[in-house]
Design brief:
single chain; 5 helices; 86% helix; 0% strand; rod-shaped
Length: 218
């Protein structure tokens, strides 16, 4: 989806086009938040399943290494010796493979899942916090503006000047909240291109290295 750029200068204008653009960015961030939550779940499932697989593979490797043929007669035949050695070698190969897998799994939650969760919780969470502040200041400003417009011009000059000053103060607060909100959205878009993508790339690359090592190691 291609979004229009959110411009800081539009915060002061606050026209319908700016609000529509803001809503599109908000919808995109909601989709991103849902997608990251799903990715976190699926990556966690992969790690959990891999831990189970690794445990079972290690059990199999142990049994292969410890497997012994019963000798019929005085001594083992060459074939029996060859088969027994082969089983032990298969077991050792499985152990080596699982050692490499463990290097990924032992740190997977901290290296991959936690950064993804932190990105979702902190970065996108910050946008939600700034949105609440923006909505609050927006409501306060437009309520003050409506109240100001309905004010009688017969009021005392000092009263009117004070009302104008209060309205300008509310407007400044609103624009500042709008600027912070737009800045938070822009930061998430930029960080998504680096922090989020790099974490996923690192996760996939660790598995590619594991498969490569397992292939050449055998």
């Amino acid at each position: 989806m291609v979004l229009k750029t959110l411009e800081f200068k539009d915060c002061a204008l606050d026209d319908p086009e700016f609000r529509q653009n803001l809503q599109e960015h908000e919808k995109e961030l909601e989709r991103t938040n849902r997608d990251i939550k799903q990715l976190i779940k699926e990556c966690s499932d992969v790690i959990t399943t891999s831990l189970t697989l690794s445990r079972l593979q290690k059990q199999l490797a142990k049994h292969l290494v410890e497997f012994n043929f019963e000798t019929i007669g005085g001594s083992q035949t060459d074939d029996e010796i060859s088969i027994s050695q082969s089983l032990k070698e298969f077991g050792r190969l499985l152990c080596d493979i699982e050692e490499e897998r463990s290097k990924i799994l032992d740190t997977a939650m901290d290296q991959y899942i936690k950064p993804l969760e932190d990105f979702r919780r902190l970065q996108i969470g910050n946008v939600k916090t700034e949105k609440k502040k923006f909505d609050k200041e927006s409501t306060k400003f437009y309520q003050s503006q409506e109240k100001h417009l309905s004010m009688s011009c017969k009021k005392d000059d000092n009263f009117l000047k004070e009302a104008d000053a209060d309205l300008q103060l509310q407007r400044r607060h609103f624009i500042q909240a709008s600027l912070r909100y737009v800045k938070a959205i822009q930061e998430v878009h930029e960080r998504k291109k680096f922090e989020f993508v790099e974490t996923l790339w690192s996760f996939m690359n660790s598995w590619m290295n594991f498969f490569r090592i397992s292939k050449h190691g055998t």
